[in-house]
Design brief:
Structural class: mainly alpha
Shape: flat
Helix content: over 70%
Largest sheet: none
Number of helices: 20
Strand content: under 5%
Order of helices and strands: HHHHHHHHHHHHHHHHHHHH
Distance between the termini: 50 Å
Number of strands: 0
Length: 504
């Protein structure tokens, strides 16, 4: 087996991007994709091993899952390391076989025999004598551990040199669904101590993320010829979307099975713990960074409170001077001096309550201004979007009721645009074929674009625009506005009016 890796050439840094950060993100993105594939295999292999190992019921499921993941990642990274060091494939296979038996014997020793001393080797003879013994239960456990290590090494070596292809990752996702169907049936009949729901949610969480990454990489490769382009922000949005989908599936499972809410919440305990710890770290870091600004804001607020206090105190003194003491009853005003009267007026008009009211009114005004601006921005964007769709609305009057319903939902307009773009591209290819420039069976649209530039050398931008639109609709991306769709049709009209170059 050749363990050499197919390394993708890094794209040149564009603009003012730092080459070091770009290279770091490029390798981190590749490692994330490999990790997703390894986690998908782990989510399928771990429940199968737990079903085959009822004697391991006291093992923590999380530890078992981590053990399987390490069994997959160990040969994968070892093969990559040996390829980077330039070791020959034959020697790589020999070293991997030695490491395989070392891991197997180490697992037998720690799990099944547990000798008292590290240098004690008596267990090794017992393990060899147990091989093939039909009456010894230790032999069956040895065989299951052998299969576990073998499957882990096999899946790890399969990751070496894998290329992101949407067909393979889609097939892997469907095969995993079939495997989980078998696991669910066995779990219903056997009723093990663990629940397969957590493994299913983990599988689809990383599976959906991997599908999105692979599809983005494949689109970028067809456009530029290199695997690049996705940003950390985009990956974060995809991961968050996958988390929301799997969480919704878990809640739906809770409603169907009437499981305890605490037990269902424990399925995502690692995720919740990571989110809580990450939020605490982010908030503490932001508080530390903004502490100087908050200190200055506190000084300004204290100065404002002092000024308001002085102003209100002067106002209260003016009110006190204008109060007629005869308004008070004799029993209440008898023996009341000037200081007691000021205290009474101050108590009736407390500074803190008035200041709180002023600040609340100010906060309400700020919120109203913010909401007004947000509403204006949203209304402006809506008007622009409606204006761009005026042309399409005028054409809906001649459609049938079903077509108008689909157009209302945005489906019919999308189908019609996609069909028109496909027809335009096919007509362009037929015109080029008639001129003696046919498209090869294995030729991609971007490879055939070089031939189209020879057919219409003066309309290179038009053929490029039609080709890009055709590739985009293959991956579900349609023209966003009517103007963009009209530009594609106008490009084809210009190509129709231009006679193509011929070989003769």
């Amino acid at each position: 087996m050749n363990m050499t890796m197919n390394m993708t050439t890094l794209p040149e840094p564009a603009g003012n991007e730092k080459p070091a950060l770009q290279a770091a993100w490029h390798f981190a993105k590749q490692e994330l994709l490999y990790l997703c594939w390894a986690l998908m295999d782990t989510a399928v292999i771990t429940p199968l091993l737990l079903l085959a190992m009822p004697w391991a019921r006291f093992w923590p499921v999380s530890v078992m899952t981590l053990w399987v993941l390490l069994l997959i990642l160990l040969p994968f990274n070892l093969a990559r390391l040996m390829s980077a060091l330039g070791i020959r494939p034959a020697r790589q296979r020999l070293l991997l076989i030695v490491i395989f038996f070392f891991i197997l014997l180490l697992g037998w020793r720690m799990v099944l025999f547990a000798p008292r001393a590290f240098w004690e080797l008596g267990w090794l003879g017992t393990a060899i004598l147990n091989i093939g013994s039909p009456t010894d239960t230790i032999w069956s456990r040895q065989f299951i551990l052998f299969l576990a290590v073998l499957v882990g090494f096999w899946r790890g070596l399969r990751l070496v040199g894998m290329r992101p292809e949407i067909r393979k990752i889609g097939l892997r996702l469907r095969l995993g669904a079939v495997a989980f169907g078998v696991i669910a049936v066995i779990a219903i009949s056997e009723r093990p101590f663990w629940s397969p729901v957590g493994f299913i949610l983990l599988y689809y969480l990383v599976g959906l993320t991997a599908v999105a990454l692979v599809r983005a990489e494949q689109v970028e490769f067809e456009n530029t010829g290199m695997f690049s382009g996705v940003s950390p922000r985009w990956v974060g949005i995809v991961a968050l979307t996958s988390l929301i989908i799997t969480s919704a599936a878990g809640i739906f499972t809770l409603l169907l099975t009437n499981e305890n809410a605490g037990r269902v919440a424990s399925w995502g305990a690692p995720i919740w713990t990571a989110i809580l710890l990450g939020t605490a770290v982010v908030l503490r870091t932001l508080g530390y960074l903004f502490s100087p600004l908050l200190f200055v804001f506190g000084l300004l607020l204290e100065l404002l409170i002092t000024l308001l206090d002085r102003f209100l105190s002067g106002l209260f003194e003016m009110i006190q001077q204008g109060i007629n003491p005869a308004l008070f009853e004799p029993a209440q005003t008898e023996g009341v001096g000037q200081e007691e009267l000021v205290e009474t007026v101050t108590r009736n008009f407390p500074t803190t309550e008035i200041l709180t009211g002023v600040l609340m009114v100010f906060a309400v005004i700020v919120v109203i201004i913010f909401l007004t601006r947000l509403y204006r921005q949203t209304a402006t964007a809506t008007r622009q979007r409606d204006f761009s769709q005026v042309g399409s609305r005028e054409r809906t009057s001649s459609l049938s009721l079903g077509q108008r319903l689909l157009n209302r939902l945005g489906l019919f307009r999308n189908w019609r645009a996609a069909g028109t773009i496909r027809r335009i591209y096919q007509d362009m290819c037929q015109a080029a074929t008639g001129a003696g420039f046919p498209r090869g069976a294995s030729e991609t649209p971007y490879e055939y674009l070089k031939t189209l530039t020879e057919v219409w050398p003066e309309n290179t931008s038009d053929s490029q625009l039609i080709t890009q639109a055709y590739v985009k609709i293959r991956y579900g991306e349609l023209p966003e506005t009517e103007e963009e769709f009209n530009r594609i049709k106008e490009a084809w009209q210009r190509l129709e009016r231009t006679p193509p170059m011929s070989l003769g």
